[in-house]
């Protein structure tokens, strides 16, 4: 199934102006409720203003009415939204999931699970100063984190190789979650024929 | 002699440089992942302070949040690299920072882990990208291969590809579809924009059959990696046609 419609320059043809409709939908395209952010189209102007300002620091003002491929023109015409600035970007080259095994002195040890390739699990030691002050509070054995290595492109066009550690922000389990886990464990124990002494 | 060696180097280096130019692949210039939930929401709840009180965010993150709007019908704010917007019928969280994709998922799972009974009808996991193609010829070639212009030329003057939407059935046992949208990039010259919308329909289109958020979050956690891998595979495959 193929439909053809909207935006700016076109492969295999001359450049043209955008023809997105005012409600942010691509003219003629099927409305796709979970596809992108068409959502603010019917809201009041102040809501659009606030949101466009919020999105003005990222690519194409992704929080505005038309999504990541939003044409630049309508946004730059909005005196309240400001210029769409060039982004900093992080391109992931390698990614691991980490589990903190031990914390001692100025470092911590972790097991790393390769999430991009098929390398076997590894253990590594990280200096604690690699962590943001916020993440240091989460540094306990068993804590989960992601470790990313990639390129960081800054606003000036420079590229650095960068490492980022992000601890998972999972909220503590609620009482119902604990109870559900307890029941699941009980069921499993029973299925295995284990009994409490 | 030195001049001869220099000339030799020049002769050998030129073809290499040409080869590199020819072989250069499309360059990823921007990437966004969004999680969209459709259902019935109370936007007023979704505020950074509430998230901090529930342990989903730190106090410091919540206090540093950039507030867009707090209104009974719409809430929008940004926490670090993640932007959140909630309407009465729709929740969306998204980021353009590739090192925050997992944080995005955890945030959504954390929020709805506290709102277990919120009715959810559908979920989209969407990856959008802008790629710059190595040449104008490659950019045109991709448009022609995806939509050959021969059938249009008798009735249109210089037909060009503006937007292509392709929908496929799911290759897993879940209800929904995978939709790929292809457009010329509005941000990058000789660039292409692609969105892969991985759509999960929970309620057969009937709001009475919405499922609790706890079940939707189970699905999100289960499908997350495969969904993003599928989206990458589709986008990368299309780019090989250039």
Report helical residue fraction of chain B.
25-40%
Helix and strand run of chain B: HEHHEEEEHEHEEEEH
Helix/strand class of chain A: alpha+beta
- Quote the distance from N terminus to C terminus of chain B: 44 Å
Unreliably modeled segments of chain A: 1-9, 14-31, 36-66, 72-86
CA-based shape of chain A: elongated
For the largest beta-sheet of chain A, the strand count, sense and barrel status come to: 5 strands, antiparallel
Gyration radius of chain A, in Å = 24 Å
CATH class of the domain at 89-167 in chain A: Mainly Beta
Task: Tell me the number of helical segments of chain A per DSSP (H or I, 4 or more residues long).
Answer: 4
Largest sheet of chain B: 10 strands, antiparallel
Q: Which chains have the largest interface? A: A-B, 68 and 82 residues
Can you put this structure into words, describing what you see?
The complex is a heterodimer of chains A (197) and B (242). Chain A is an alpha+beta fold and 197 residues long. Chain A contains four helices and five strands. Among the domains of chain A are: 39-77, no CATH class; 89-167, OB fold (Dihydrolipoamide Acetyltransferase, E2P). Mean pLDDT of chain A is 67; it is low at 1-9, 14-31, 36-66 and 72-86. In chain A, 20% of the residues lie in helices and 25% in strands. A five-stranded antiparallel β-sheet of chain A has the order 3-2-1-4-5, with no helix packed on it. Chain B is an alpha+beta fold and 242 residues long. Chain B has a domain at 24-36 and 122-240. Chain B is 35% helix and 32% strand. Chain B is built from six helices and ten strands. Chain B has helices at residues 2-23, 48-53, 59-63, 101-113, 136-146, 213-240, and strands at residues 27-39, 66-70, 74-79, 82-87, 90-95, 119-132, 164-169, 176-184, 191-201, 211-212. In chain B, strands 1, 2, 3, 4, 5, 6, 7, 8, 9 and 10 form a ten-stranded antiparallel β-sheet that branches. In chain B, a hairpin with a 6-residue loop joins strand 8 (176-184) and strand 9 (191-201). In chain B, helix 4 packs antiparallel against helix 6 (213-240). The chains are: A alpha+beta (197), B alpha+beta (242). The interface between A and B is large, with 68 and 82 residues.
């Amino acid at each position: 199934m193929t439909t053809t419609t909207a935006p700016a320059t076109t492969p295999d043809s001359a450049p043209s102006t955008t023809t997105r409709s005012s409600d942010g939908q691509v003219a003629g395209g099927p409305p796709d409720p979970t596809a992108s952010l068409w959502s603010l189209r019917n809201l009041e102007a102040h809501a659009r203003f606030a949101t466009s300002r919020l999105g003005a620091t990222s690519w194409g003002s992704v929080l505005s009415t038309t999504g990541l491929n939003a044409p630049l023109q309508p946004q730059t015409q909005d005196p309240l939204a400001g210029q769409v600035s060039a982004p900093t970007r992080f391109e992931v080259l390698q990614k691991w999931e980490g589990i903190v095994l031990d914390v001692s002195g100025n470092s911590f040890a972790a097991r790393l699970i390769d999430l991009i390739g098929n390398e076997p699990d590894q253990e590594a030691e990280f200096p604690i100063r690699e962590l943001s002050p916020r993440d240091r509070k989460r540094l306990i054995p068993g804590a989960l984190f992601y470790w990313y290595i990639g390129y960081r492109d800054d606003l000036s066009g420079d590229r650095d190789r960068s490492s980022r550690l992000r601890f998972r922000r999972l909220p503590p389990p609620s009482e119902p979650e604990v109870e559900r886990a307890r029941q699941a464990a009980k069921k499993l124990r029973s299925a295995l024929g284990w009994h409490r002494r | 002699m030195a001049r001869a060696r220099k000339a030799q180097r020049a002769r050998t280096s030129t073809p290499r440089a040409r080869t590199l130019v020819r072989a250069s692949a499309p360059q990823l210039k921007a990437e966004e992942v969004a999680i969209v939930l459709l259902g019935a929401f109370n936007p007023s709840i979704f505020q950074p302070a509430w998230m901090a009180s529930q342990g989903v965010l730190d106090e410091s993150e919540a206090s540093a949040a950039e507030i867009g709007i707090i209104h009974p019908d719409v809430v929008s704010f940004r926490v670090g690299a993640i932007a959140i917007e909630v309407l009465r019928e729709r929740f969306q969280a998204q980021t353009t920072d590739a090192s925050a994709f997992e944080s995005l998922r955890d945030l959504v799972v954390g929020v709805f882990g506290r709102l277990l009974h919120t009715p959810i009808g559908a979920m989209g996991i969407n990856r959008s990208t802008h790629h710059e193609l190595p040449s104008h010829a490659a950019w045109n070639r991709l448009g022609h291969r995806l939509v050959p212009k021969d059938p249009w030329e008798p009735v249109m003057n210089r037909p060009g590809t503006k937007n292509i939407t392709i929908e496929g059935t799911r290759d897993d046992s879940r209800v929904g579809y995978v939709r790929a949208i292809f457009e010329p990039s509005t941000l990058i010259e000789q660039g292409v924009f692609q969105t892969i919308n991985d759509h999960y329909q929970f309620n057969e289109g009937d709001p009475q059959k919405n499922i609790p958020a706890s079940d939707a979050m189970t699905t999100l956690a289960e499908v997350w990696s495969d969904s993003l891998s599928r989206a990458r595979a589709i986008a990368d495959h299309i780019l090989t046609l250039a």
